[in-house]
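[09:14] KT: can someone run the structure on this one? pasting the chain below
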Amino acid sequence: MKKIVFAFAIIVMMCFSSSAVAADKISIMVKNKQIQTDSAPVVVQGKVLIPLRAVSESLGAIVEWNQQQKTAVVSKWSKKASLTVGKKTARVENLAAPELSADKSLDVSVQLISSRVYVPLRFISEQLGYTVDYKNNIVSIRSPYEGLPKENFFAQILSGDLGRSRSIITANNSAYGLRNYELPPLKTGAFVANEAYLFPEGEALRFFMIEDNEIITYYEYKDDFLVATWQGRLEDKAGNAIDQLYADKFKERTGPTPKINKPFFYRYYSGYENSVWRCGRIDVDGKFTETGFKDETQSIGMISFVFPNEIRKEVIPVSQTSLRIP
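[09:31] RB: done, structure tokens below
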């Protein structure tokens, strides 16, 4: 009888070690702050798994649970990830770019342990744009900007020269997190022939972007990323977009239009037929003063990304995530 009991105990221990092993001493740090969870990380097949809801919500995401399908859906802005217990894949979608939706492989299948959904450490944080690390029994989830050298594009967007920051943003509006939307996006045609940017004086991390003289999008630096927080579709695509913005003439919008209470630096580019660049200043009352013009035949004034003597008023150290505007 003793041999049978001993053999049974060995089998139980082997089963437990091959599935989920509690890792009570592992702590979770999110942006340099330890978060408290009612369920500890676990180790499965040599991989660290973290409680999905606690970590996702600490990053500002929303988690919904479908009991019947045993599926958790994690949403933040226009991004969404669906994870089903027992599966080694997750469905990742982005309302702003549906063509990029795809199934992503996981190192370990999604687990349901003590009524809590667990996922591999890297998956959910990386899908939301954060960096992760596991060292010395500490799971660290950090801002994507933390520890970047000053020469890095991200670092220059946040705290570099004002003109350099604006130039990076306007040249890479898809590559640097700008396709995050708080609400379902309004869209123009598949091919955008021209774009214009309106930056508040002294700032790079808030701006209006006008696409094809039709859709105006307002971006803000929020929760570590540049996010579209408002959009509007202009009444008259053939009319002057700036005049319509200042007159609040929209036939469709995603919320209250942001208030205009500062002068803007204006930059315009069109690549349709002939390349054209324009830049200038827009006063609070909408008066426009052009300071630079260039096309394939002539150049007038100076094409730049700043007013003369304009000083940056934002301060975001790359090792932190707080924004200060004096």
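[09:33] KT: thanks! Residues 73 and 82 are 4 Å apart (CA to CA).
[09:34] RB: yep, looked fine to me
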